[in-house]
Every structure is written in structure tokens, then in C-alpha cells.
Design a protein that fits this description.
The protein is an alpha/beta fold. It contains 16 helices and 14 strands. A four-stranded mixed beta sheet has the order 3-2-1-4. Strands 5-12-13-14 form a four-stranded antiparallel beta sheet, with helices on one face. A four-stranded parallel beta sheet has the order 6-7-8-9.
Amino acid sequence: MLYRGDFVYTENLCDLTIRRDYLLAVDTEGYISHFDHASTTCSHSLISNESDDHIVLIPPGSFILPTFCDLHLHAPQFLYQGTGLHLPLMEWLNEYAFKAEESLDQDVNLARRVYTRLGERLAENGTGAVLLYGTIKEETNLILAETMQQIGIRAFVGKLSMDISTRPTYVEPTHIESLASARSFIDRVAAFISHIPDHARLVEPVLTPRFVPTCSDALLQGLGDLAAKTGVRVQSHLAEARDQMKVVQESRGMSDLEVFERRNFRVLLDTEQAIAHCPLSNAYFSGRQLILREALDRGVCVGLGTDVAGGYGIDIMGAMRWAVGVARLSEGARLERSEGQAQARVSRDKAADPLIDTRGISVDWKEALYLGTRGGALALGLDSGVFKTGAPFDAQQICVFNPSTMPYGTGPLDFFDSGDGYLDLSPEVIEKWWCLGDARNRTGMWIQGKRVYFG
């Protein structure tokens, strides 16, 4: 299959790449086999040897963008998305999260309905890969994995491991049974995908100790050993909120990071760590936002997450916008503190961290777009997020305007300076979509070369 038109991606943190009138070829397994300007000899040869029904022309006013990656989403909490955000974290978990998760574990039909609609919403919003928190019960998580595979979403599915709970009916009896269930889930996912060709396998299991307050030291140690033995990825929460950190300090006598490091997760933290930055849920539950700029400047792998239902929106575009807004607020607070300090203190701070003091800690929309696409892909170990030979064709088609309807663009966009009805696909046009666009601008999505959404 050939795709001809404009392509946009962010291969590096600060670079926005716009390729105009390019030709992209996808092989039978869904990998990009050619990506070059449509005027080249090789491109001409591909076009001349392909039938018209295998050539997709991207119309003026539209472009192809890599799909979004969501690094943190609680699948069962989609059940009550957009409600219950008035409580502190630990109270919120008891009042809403645990109840919702338990209800899906008790009703497989409800689980299928929720997870099917979740997958459809992810495709509608351009999310092609997602790292999911599930529930305790193996069968419910297998439903989640099967549903995502069927819809065509790359899904990293985490069966929750938790042998401590404030809800007596929603807990695994012992750390031994919890570990056995985690091992069983890994094997059952492997069995489920064994009949699927390698290139078409979209789901994989993830070890998921919920967080320190719900996991005994013995369970964490066992999961750390299991991760080292199997190579299965691990996800969890760290230092999310003041009440959560207080619980850990009082029960363990140390921070949750120290707890993980002592339970055979050190190698993961030191060499393969990635941060799922969820700015919206942090605004609700955390006493302090992640200093995103510091993490990026220090070379930490960072992507974005929606944290549904701790975050009310399933769209990564919302997470991108919140990431920029929160960083701007943090920068404003930093400047205000600096202005109120004595010169000696300011000089000392510069010596301690000159990079932050000279560059500030804000981020811009291009950097956020990188985090929502390429940054998230790298965090998940995927080769997507860019357009290059050998990468999977994971892409979404975005329409910002139709020349025949100008100056009125697509969805919420308007372009009153369009002149003759056409605008060049400039960074300014893309920024306008980034700020104002929504699902109405999405006219298609492909995962591993297969179209999974028709806008």
C-alpha cells in the first residue's frame, strides 16, 4: 500500500519535521518499506507499478502523524471516567477505584462492554499504544487483552498484584497466591497470542504492583525476582500524593522509591526506567507537579499518560496541553521565588543547577507533541513515533482544513487568512491544530499497517 501526501513527526525533542509530498510504502506485514519524496526515481517506480486502489492520496489540508502513546491508563476506571475527583487520593481509591475494579471482576459482560468502548474511544482519539492497569482477576485482564487485540490497539496489559487492601473483598489472599496469579497471567497471554503472526501481536503482559501501600515486602520481592527472570515489564506508582507518601513512610519507615529499590527493582530503576507524566491527575491529587524540564534535561525517558480516571480525559492531546500549561505555571512560580531571593542565594542556586536557571523549566508544544508520540513509543520499547524504513506504520490522519470550505477549517479550526483557500502546512497551522483540535480532525488511524479507525 502506498500513501502520498504530507507527513509530520518529531523524531527529537525539539525538532518538528514536516515532509511535504512524500511517498510512504507499507509492506504486507505492516512495516514501512519506503519513505522519500514523491519526485524521486524510486518513488516514481513504486507509483507506476502499483494499482490505483493501492494508492492513498492524502488531500490538501490533511497530514499523516504518528499515533499517540498513553503510558498510564486504568482500564476498569473508564467505567466512571469524569466523576469523583473531589477527594484526596487514598479516599478516592476506596470510594471509587476499588469498587469499579471489583465490579468488573464480578461481571464479565460488564467488563467486555467497558473494554470494548474503551478501545473504540482510544482509536477515536488517536491512541495507538497504551500501558494499562487492569484488575486483580486473571480472566478479566484476559478479556482486556483480547479486546485490545481485536480492535487493533497496541496494549500492554497489567494484571494488578495487591495482597493488602482497605477493601476486604478486593484483595489477593496472600503474596504467594498473588505471585502465582501473576505468573499464570503471563503464561496465559503468551498462549493467547501464540497463534498470531509475530508482526500482528499487539498485546503483552506487564507486572503491576499497584503501589507500595497495597503490596507486602514479600510480594514486591517476588515480583522483582519474576521481572528479572522473565524480562516482563513492570509498572507502578511512585510518590503520587502527600497522603500516599505519608502512608508509606509510616508503614515502612522509608519512601516508596526506597522500598522498590530494596526489592530487586534496582536494575530497572537504574537502567530502563521511564516516567509516565500525567499532568492532569497530578493537578488533582499531587501536592507538587513533576518538574518535567529537569527530567528531560537529565536524559530521563518520559512520555505522557491520561491516568483515567484520576485524569478525566482519555485524549492524549489534553495531556499534551496540560503538560505545557503546568510547566508554565511552575516556571512562573520559580521566577517569582528567584526575584524574592537575595543575590547571594540566587548565585548559589545558579552554581548548583545552572541549566535550569538559564533555560527555565517551561516546555513548548513541539516538545509535548514529541512526548505524546515518539517519547511514549521509546518508553514502551516501540520503534514507532516516526516515519522511517523498517518502522511499523502506526499513524493517524489529521484534517485541518478543506480548501473548498475555507476560511472555515475542520472541526473547531478556522483560518481567516487563507487567501485563495489554501494554506501551506506550516508549523503555525500544526500548532493551531495542537491547541484547538479534537476527534473531529481525525479521519483515520492505522496500526501495523492495518486501518483500525475510519473518521
